[in-house]
Amino acid sequence: MKFLLPFLLALTLLRAAPLTPARIAEQRAQILANFFVPTPLPALDAKTHRRFAPAAGVAAEAITYTTQLGSRVPGILYLPDPLPKGGKVPAFVVVNGHGGDKYSWYAWFTGIAFARAGMAVLTYDQAGEGERSATRQSGTRDHDKLKGDEILARRLAGLMITDVRQAVSLLAARPEIDATRIGAGGYSLGSFVLALAGSVEPRLRACVLVGGGNLSGAGDHWDRSSKAMCQALPWRSLDFLGDRGAMIYALHAARGPTLIWNGRADTVVDMPTTLEPFFENLRARAVALRGTAADVFEFGFTPATSHRPYWLMQPAVLWLEHQLDFPHWNESSIRAQPTTHILTWSQQTGVPLDKLYATEEREGGTLAPGTGVPGFARETLSVFSPAEWEKNKSTLTFAAWSERARAAGAK
Question: Is this prediction's pTM over 0.85?
Answer without folding.
Answer: yes
